[in-house]
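Task 17 of the worksheet. Students: predict the tertiary structure of the chain below and write it out as structure tokens. Keep your answer in the requested format; marks are given for formatting as well as content.
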Amino acid sequence: MNSGSMILLAIGTVCLVVLVGEHLWHVPRWLTPVLLFVGFGGILAGMGWFALGLIVG
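Model answer:
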């Protein structure tokens, strides 16, 4: 797995963990959709970049 896809996956995972733990930490109301978008977008982009790396070689 290349480093770019690992970074995107890690960012997406951290955002989703913060979103799930929102009831424990104070997160501003406007940050919830941003965390959701960046979380799922980061995971999907990381998986796509990894798949593209496998295809291209």
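Marker's comment: Residues 17 and 46 are 17 Å apart (CA to CA). The chain has two helices and no strands.
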